[in-house]
Prior knowledge:
44% strand; 10 strands; mainly beta
Amino acid sequence: MKIISFLxxxxxxxxxxxxxRNSNPTTIDENTGKPTQxxxxxxxxxxxxIDSVYDFGKVQDGQIVEYSYRFxxxxxxxxxxxxxxxxxxxxxxEKPEQPILPGEIGFIKVKFNSENRVGQxxxxxxxxxxxxxxxxxxxxxxxxxxxx
Length: 148
């Protein structure tokens, strides 16, 4: 009888352990290498971009351009940015690590390294978040001039 109880208990324990699902699955951010929260099963909210385009004007080759795009959570659920990817390795976006609560303003900070990028530049940042419609693309433009 003890053996049957042991086997039944062990089977139940194994079945339960194998059936547990991670309610907070993560992925790895391509830019930072840090885990990010998946937003597949997160309730959607809405977003209003305060800044979607930044024209930095003219900078000299080798200068670093930094800008923080602002957005507002206009919905009634927390806004979670799961990823921000730039169109080029010379542009590094930083997403907020914490959810943006309803009514709050969040920031996507972008650093552009202009080294060896002489001429007109047009870089984009694609943001993945739990918003409907999807998060609009962010644009960084300007001109990089040669060193004198």
